[in-house]
Write a structure and sequence with these properties.
This protein has helices spanning 2-5, 14-30, 63-66, 78-81, 89-99, 126-132, 155-165, 179-189, 205-214, 232-240, 253-264, and strands spanning 38-44, 49-56, 103-109, 113-121, 146-151, 171-176, 193-196, 223-227, 245-248. The protein is an alpha/beta fold and 271 residues long. The protein has two domains: 2-121, Heat Shock Protein 90 (2-Layer Sandwich); 138-264, Response regulator (Rossmann fold), CATH 3.40.50.2300. A five-stranded parallel sheet has the order 6-5-7-8-9, sandwiched between helices. A four-stranded antiparallel sheet has the order 1-2-4-3.
Length: 271
């Protein structure tokens, strides 16, 4: 496996690739039968991807459930498996793998077992990179010297956005896991953009938004709310309070990046 991971992906993030392997390992151990097995295999594909497969001998996943497995809060019930989880791990994995221009999926048969697989693009050799000399992605253009404040108390969500922001050059990311700290950091750093979760341990995200808009120092800073609590009434109220946009979890990566690029370039909406 060390030899496999030595084939660096285009993202250069071996730690991130390894974390996705661990996430895909969890169903194989959590829902396995006594004395069951979990195996890992990997190989480069002809299409230039590194394919990793995690195979188990567990309870298997019904066909009708497989299409929803990578959606947030979808999980096998305790009644079916004797175990229950949050239903967020695989959804987060899909977002991260998509951000790395990869793919993830599952093949499963009830009472036989499951095979989770993921494919990540392999990096070209240094000589090939120099010969190709590709232009930077469009999302990297004109984004320099900007500061983004992300207010979120979930470490997995923080890691996801941190990973996505590596696509931009010259962005400083400031994070806060509490609302009160976020207000103080906004006054101190004067960010160009605030990403705001609604459910924080010390105060509501809505209150954070109100305080930012009430302060002359931060009133003009665009605030994008990111939350799974996306009822029409709530969205309308937050936009009325001054939020620039509302994004639902899990993030739709391409739209998220286009919106960030637009707002950090002083535009009101993505082009």
């Amino acid at each position: 496996m060390n030899e496999i991971l030595g084939r660096r992906s285009k993202t250069g993030s071996l730690a991130l690739a390894a974390s996705q392997i661990i996430t895909c390992f969890r169903p194989g151990t959590k829902y396995n039968r006594p004395g069951g097995e979990v195996s890992v295999a990997g190989k480069p594909t002809a299409a230039g991807f590194l394919r990793l497969e995690i195979q188990d001998t567990g309870v298997g996943i019904p066909a009708e459930f497989q299409s929803r497995l990578f959606q947030p809060f979808e999980r096998l019930s305790a009644a079916e498996t004797g175990e229950e989880g949050t239903g967020l791990g695989l959804a987060l994995s899909k977002n991260l793998v998509s951000a790395m221009k990869g793919r993830i999926g599952v093949q499963s048969q009830v009472s036989v077992g499951s095979t989770f697989w993921l494919e990540l693009p392999l990096a070209a050799s240094p000589s090939a990179k120099q010969a190709a000399a590709p232009s930077p992605p469009a999302a990297l253009t004109n984004i320099t010297g900007k500061t983004v404040l992300y207010v979120e108390d979930n470490l997995s969500n923080l890691r996801l956005v941190e990973t996505l922001l590596t696509r931009f050059s010259g962005i400083k990311l400031v994070t806060a896991m509490q609302g009160r700290l976020a207000v103080l950091l906004a006054r101190e750093h004067r960010p160009d953009l605030v990403l705001l979760d609604l459910h924080l341990p010390d105060m509501k995200g809505e209150q954070v938004l109100q305080e930012l808009k009430a302060d002359a120092a931060t009133r003009q800073t665009p605030v994008v709310v990111i939350s799974a609590d996306a009822t029409p009434g709530r969205i309308e109220r937050l936009l009325a309070l001054g939020a620039r946009d509302f994004l639902t979890k899990p993030l739709e990566v391409k739209h998220f990046l286009r919106l960030l690029e637009a707002l950090l370039n002083g535009k009101t909406t993505p082009s």
